Amino acid sequence: MSGRALSFGGVAEAYERFRPGYPVELFEMVIAYAGRPVPTALEIGAGTGKATRLFAQRGIAVTATDPDGSMLAELRKHVPVDVATVRAAFEDLRPGERYALVYAAAALHWTDPEGRWPRIAALLEPGGVFASFGAPFRLTDPAVQEAVHAARAPFLESDEIPSPDGTPPDHEMQWPGSELQRSESFTDVRQAVIERHVTMSARDYIGHLSTISAYLVLPASVREQVFSRIRQVLPDTVEMTADITVHLARRRQED
């Protein structure tokens, strides 16, 4: 697991404060796709529990896993008491209990691609559902976007994570759907988008940037300089597009 993947624990409280939760529409989409009761779920890279709450508060017995103890400590402040937590990287999880649902919220790209899909399949009941979803924040106003890019450029060309398998951004099926379609473990791969727009103050936007791995791995003095430069070009209120891209797939039935 990369250093960027393990960079969040020091900002667990900021992550909880500045990252938005997930809408009930996402839960309904996953349940409708499942087409059958979903009593249990395993979450990969639960962080502070933004997605954990979505499923646990609606009656699903969630086991939330994350390699970072600080993130799980923050999670426990906000999720139902009956949520089970396991401090472990995805690669260290051992098959045992099988779940009706395995899901990852903006975390799957941190997992090791070697054996990823057989590992996930081994955690699922036959016919069980895998769901991956994430919502990159993008500035809605092109002029503000360009100003922020120019302010950041001397230190950081991009703060986004490129497609792990090189799928172009204009391709019809985005990652991880592109990998799921090639996997022998899964079938009925679907992609959907839940539109979402977020308005925040300039200060909160900087707070949001402080939870993004590309900035977290910068030296502290450089990071503060970048944030100062970005703050200078922001309007008082920032409009963001934060559409949630959802990928769903079903574990093949065993022969």
Automatic annotation (TrEMBL):
Annotated Methyltransferase domain residues: 42-128
One record GO biological process: methylation
Q: Which UniProt keywords apply?
A: Methyltransferase, Transferase
What top-level branch of life does the organism fall under?
A: Bacteria
From the UniProt entry, list the residue stretches annotated as the region Disordered: 157-183
Instruction: Recall the GO molecular function terms of this protein's record.
Output: methyltransferase activity
* Family matches, as CDD domains: AdoMet_MTases
Organism for this UniProt entry:
Streptomyces paradoxus
User: What Pfam families does the entry give?
Assistant: Methyltransf_25
InterPro entries under this entry?
Diverse_substrate_MTase (IPR051052), Methyltransf_25 (IPR041698), SAM-dependent_MTases_sf (IPR029063)
Protein name (Swiss-Prot/TrEMBL): SAM-dependent methyltransferase
Gene3D superfamilies listed in its UniProt record: Vaccinia Virus protein VP39
